[in-house]
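Subject: Interface between my chains keeps coming out wrong

I've been trying for a while to get a sensible model of this assembly. When I model each chain on its own everything looks fine, but I need the whole thing in one frame so I can look at the contacts. Pasting all components below, labels as-is. Any help appreciated, I'm running out of ideas.
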Amino acid sequence: MAIDSGARGPAQLVLTASVARRYYLDGRSKVEIAQEFALSRFKVARLLEDARSSGLVRIEIGHPGSVDVELSDRLMSTLGLQHCVVTDTPDDLPATMRAHLGAAAADLLTEIVTPDDVLGLSWARSVSSMATALQRLAPVPVVQLTGALARPGVDDSSIDVVRDVARVAGGPAYFFYAPMSVPDAATAQALRRQPEVAQAFSRIGSVTRAVAGVGAWEPEQSTLFDATGEAERRELARQGVCAEISGVLVDADGNPVRSDLTERMIGITADQMRAVPEVIAIVYGRAKVHAVLAAVRGGMVNSLVTHSTLAELLIAAASS
Amino acid sequence: MAIDSGARGPAQLVLTASVARRYYLDGRSKVEIAQEFALSRFKVARLLEDARSSGLVRIEIGHPGSVDVELSDRLMSTLGLQHCVVTDTPDDLPATMRAHLGAAAADLLTEIVTPDDVLGLSWARSVSSMATALQRLAPVPVVQLTGALARPGVDDSSIDVVRDVARVAGGPAYFFYAPMSVPDAATAQALRRQPEVAQAFSRIGSVTRAVAGVGAWEPEQSTLFDATGEAERRELARQGVCAEISGVLVDADGNPVRSDLTERMIGITADQMRAVPEVIAIVYGRAKVHAVLAAVRGGMVNSLVTHSTLAELLIAAASS
DNA sequence: CGAAGTTCCGCTCATATGAGCGACAGTTGC
DNA sequence: GCAACTGTCGCTCATATGAGCGGAACTTCG
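Reply #2:
Try treating it as a single job with all components included. I did that and got this:
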C-alpha cells in the first residue's frame, strides 16, 4: 500500500529527508551529518540507502535541449559505439529530420575534431545537411571518399560538400568530380587514375574520422540502390546485401559483399573504411534498423547520429 | 542562453550523462567509471560536478504521501525543533484540518513513544482529534495536564481523552474531572487537593512527552480566551499575553505572564511545562504564527505538527 | 614574438566511505 | 521457557574520495 517501504513513521520520514537533503543537496559528508544528528555514520548511510530505495530521493538525468542523453548513452553502450548523439526529433518529413540530425552531427564534429585529424566525407544527403550546418571546425584536411551520385531531377547543389567543409575548417580539400559508380570496371580504373581522384584516394589511408550515411538495400532507402539496375539490385540482394555505407556493400552480419559493382565503384573500399578509426553515420528512418546494425557489426561505422525512434528500435533489435 | 553551462558539445554532454548515470543510478564508484571510460578519477569527479551544477543531474527529495518532508525539515531547523511534521493539508474547514493533523500527530506519537516514556495530554480539540486517530501506542502512563474547558453548546464528548489514550496504550491513566479555570484562587487550591487531581499533578514532573494545542490570545483563537471575561482578557492582553499553551500564558518572547488567572488555573505551570523534555504542539491556522513562535521561543513547545501554510509563515516570520 | 593570465590536468595525502562481521534485542514457534 | 530467526547496530580495515597544489597547454595582450 504505502510506497515508502523504509519509513515507519513521520519522524523517521522527516529525519530521512533531512539527512538526504544535507547529503544530496547541501553536499555535506556523512560524517558531518552523523555528528549533527547524533547518529553513527553507518546509520546515516543506511538512512540514505533507504531514502534511495524507497523513492524518497529521486535522481533524474536529462537536459533541456534536443539531445536525449539517456538514450544516447544506452545506444552507445548497446552497440559499443565511440560516440552517439540521439535527438528527440519527431519523425516528420525526411528533410526536416535530415536538417536536425545534420545540425547535431555538425555540433559533434566541431567538438571532436582536433587539428591532428584528417576528415573524410562520403557522399550522402545527410552529410550534405551536416556541411550546411557546420560553422566551425579545426583546420584539418578534408578528403572526399566517394564519387557523387546526383539523382536525376534532384539538384542537391551539394557536390561541393568537401570544398565547403574544408573552407569552414580552413584546411586543404582533396576532392574530385566523378560519379559513385560507372558502367564498367575499365572506366572505373581509368577514373581512379585521374590526378584529383588518385590524390584524394591516396589520403584515404590517413583519414582519422569520416562522416557517412547508411542506406538500406531497398527502394528509397539508398541512393546507390535507386541508381542501380533492377537485375543487379536483385542479384546483390540475393548475395545478402543489407546495407550500403558510402558505396560499400555489406550483408546482415556486416561482412563486405564483393561483386561486379564493387569493381565499378569510385570510392573507399570496405577494408579502408574499417581502417578509419572513427566513422560517424548520420541515419534516420525506421527502415534502416537492420542496415545500421549490419554496418556497426561489420565495423564500418562506430559512431551514430540519429533520432529517438530509430535509436529505440536499434536497441530493441540489438538486444534480441 | 543554453542552460547547460558545462557541456561544450553533444559528445561532452553524452559522456557526462553516461558518467552520471553510472555513478548516480547504477551506483558504480568513480574509480570504476574512470577505468571504463579511460579517464582519470579526477576527471570523472569534475564531470560529475559539472553535471550537478549544470542541472543535467537533478536530485529531488519528496514523497508521495501527505507529509511535506522538505518543509518539515526546514521548519525543524529554523525553529530548532525536536520533531516536526508538516502536512500539505489544504486550508479548508478547521474541523477537517484538525482531523488531518490529529492523524499525523497520532502517527508521530505511535512512532516516538517508547515504553519508558510518560505521556502528558493537555485539553484541546486538536489533542482530542489525535486521540481519536490513535490506534497503537507503547504501554505508557498517561497523565492529564489541565482541567477541561467544555464550551457551552459544544459537546466534544472528549473529556475522556486521557482515558481513551491510556486504553489504547494499555497503561495507567491519571485523569480527573475539573475545569481548566475557576472563579477564584481558593476554589482552585481546593480542587488541586482533590485526590485525583493531586495524583495527576504529582506525575507531571515525570512526564517525558506531552501533546498540546497552542492558542493565540484573540477571539476564536483560544478556548481559554473565549472563556475569559472581557475585562480580564484586556488586562492580560495589556500585560503582553500572546499565546496560551495548555493554560500557560506567555508573552511574545515566550516569557510566562503571571496574573490572577494563573492562580485560578487547574493545570500544569509554565516551569513544569518547560521541564517536560518534549512538548508536541498541534497547530493550524494563519492566525497562530506569533503564538507558536512565542511558545517555541519560550521553550514551552519543542515539536510541531502543522500544515504547509502555517509552516511557511512560521519560517518567514522566524527568519525576519 | 614573449609575458601574463587562464584553464585543464593529474598528483599527494588526509579523510570519507563501504563490505562484511559479530553482538545484541525483539519475535516467533514449539 | 527456550531455541531459532530476524532485524539493527556499530566495529575493522581496505578502498574511494576530496582539497589543494604545481605543471603543462592554451589565450590574450603588448
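Reply #3:
Confirming on my end. Residues 94-112 of chain A form the longest helix (19 residues).
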